[in-house]
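A reminder from the course coordinator: this example appears on the midterm review sheet, so study it carefully.

Given structure:
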């Protein structure tokens, strides 16, 4: 008798089935979200990890996709050094199979693949079902070790930016060009390692066919100079052509608060929460790096970016930082909606020692655009 459930590596031919599974398994919370991947599942996966490793489970009897997970790899800074590290995401199980042994089968494969490795993973704090699952202590599941929190802001672009931010006049902001590749690389090589898990960037690959940098151009980067010194950099990334966020529905107090919020936003300016079923229309801030982790530098960059994008098709700017990062001061006076996510290091062995290492930086860095 042939085996009913088959777990195998996903291929590009599975994209349509994976998109269907993603669309049928939204993230719960007061705002019910779905992180979609039209038109090709792998376009977003290739920007999350430079070495994708996607697996799926199929029901051969019913000829349908049951579940998926990804544990690809990417280079990040660990204790000051570049290290190829796994990132776990896209764990999705079809509603019809959640009550069976699907999770057991999936994590049996997890264990087989991971061996003694560990991986990063992020779960929205409001996704209590997933958090309860990872904390259940089931033998097949890896141990999820808390490793910080990510605070993500969705900042309204229709507000009076310069009046609110009081930008520092001594900071000069400009966009990057091909002539800046060397100065950008030098700056990132010097400062990126000061935050744990900061992505390793190769600026020579931007504007190339490398899929890890899909839709990124050097002109998407903004440089902040204090006198003649480069002191901060960040980039903007429009990912809507391959990764979307759909606001499916609002629950609890948010159902009423959305209407109050939107009326206030029209009068005073602020974030307009999309109607149920609509896609979010935003750009993401990424590659945030400031000398001495100085909030004033980031504030100047954000002011310039928001001013440029105020009268465009975008409604919001997305950025995320370690919950403890002082760079949050750069947005403290801006109208925004914020979400907290839990960051974990998952392994089948003891707690990874990377966070307790003597050379471990005090702050982590995660980019919402690469989760």
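Designed residues:
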């Amino acid at each position: 008798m042939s085996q009913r459930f088959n777990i195998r590596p996903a291929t590009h031919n599975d994209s349509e089935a994976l998109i269907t599974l993603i669309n049928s398994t939204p993230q719960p919370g007061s705002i019910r979200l779905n992180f979609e991947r039209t038109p090709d599942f792998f376009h977003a996966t290739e920007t999350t990890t430079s070495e994708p490793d996607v697996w799926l489970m199929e029901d051969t009897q019913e000829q349908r996709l049951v579940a998926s997970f990804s544990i690809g790899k990417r280079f990040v800074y660990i204790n000051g050094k570049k290290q190829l590290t796994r990132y776990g995401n896209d764990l999705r199980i079809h509603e019809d199979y959640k009550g069976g042994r699907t999770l057991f089968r999936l994590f049996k494969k997890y264990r087989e693949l991971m061996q003694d490795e560990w991986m990063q993973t992020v779960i929205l704090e409001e996704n209590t079902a997933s958090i309860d699952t990872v904390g259940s202590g089931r033998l097949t599941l890896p141990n999820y070790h808390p490793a910080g929190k990510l605070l993500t802001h969705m900042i309204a672009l229709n507000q009076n930016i310069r009046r609110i931010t009081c930008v520092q006049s001594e900071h000069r902001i400009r966009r990057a060009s091909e002539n800046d590749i060397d100065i950008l690389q030098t700056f990132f090589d010097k400062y990126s390692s000061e935050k744990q898990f900061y992505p390793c960037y190769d600026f020579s690959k931007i504007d190339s066919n490398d899929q890890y940098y899909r839709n990124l151009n050097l002109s998407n980067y903004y440089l902040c100079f204090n006198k003649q010194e480069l002191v901060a950099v960040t980039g903007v990334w429009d990912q809507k052509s391959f990764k979307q966020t759909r606001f499916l529905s609002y629950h609890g107090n948010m159902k009423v608060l959305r209407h109050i919020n939107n009326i206030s936003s029209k009068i005073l300016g602020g974030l307009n929460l999309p109607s149920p079923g609509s896609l979010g229309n935003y750009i993401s801030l990424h590659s945030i790096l400031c000398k001495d982790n100085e909030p004033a530098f980031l504030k100047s960059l954000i002011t310039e970016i928001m001013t440029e994008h105020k009268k465009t098709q975008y409604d919001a700017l997305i950025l995320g930082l370690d919950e403890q990062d002082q760079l949050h001061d750069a947005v403290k006076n801006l109208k925004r909606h914020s979400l907290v996510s839990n960051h974990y290091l998952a392994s089948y062995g003891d707690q990874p020692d990377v966070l307790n290492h003597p050379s471990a930086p005090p702050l982590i860095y995660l980019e919402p655009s690469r989760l």
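The first helix runs from residue 15 to 23. Residues 153-370 form a domain with the Aminopeptidase fold (CATH 3.40.630.30).
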